[in-house]
């Protein structure tokens, strides 16, 4: 995703984005430049900790699509700098997010298992009736 984003940018913008990613949004000393800070409720706390299920499961069977919250590498860099001096307890938010996701996956798995069991029962009943028909035809022929 990120490399395709860089391809659409000018060389100057690419370098600026890479510097933001490495050094954070306040690297130039103008903190008013970005209206969104890493502690904004719209920012994905799981992304700041590099464990957002929307990113982890991208292009898999469990793909969740794009995360509704903000994902910005520069904000992650800001968070990592700030987290060295203060604990924001975002790990708790991320854990709750992941636990709700796991519970949802478990629920979907149980539904799929139930459907599979019902399908297998139907197939085994159908297989038994076919076997009986074959046996009856064998007796008629033989």
Polypeptide structure, described:
The chain is mainly alpha-helical. The protein has one domain. It has six helices and no strands. The chain has helices at residues 2-7, 11-23, 45-48, 53-56, 73-83, 90-141. The longest helix is centred in the last third of the chain and has 52 residues, at 90-141. The protein is elongated and about 95 Å long. The model has no long low-confidence stretch (mean pLDDT 84). This is Rna-binding protein luc7-like 2-like protein. One of its GO terms (molecular function) is mRNA binding. Residues 122-142 are annotated as: Disordered.
Q: Keywords for this structure?
A:
single chain; 142 residues; mainly alpha
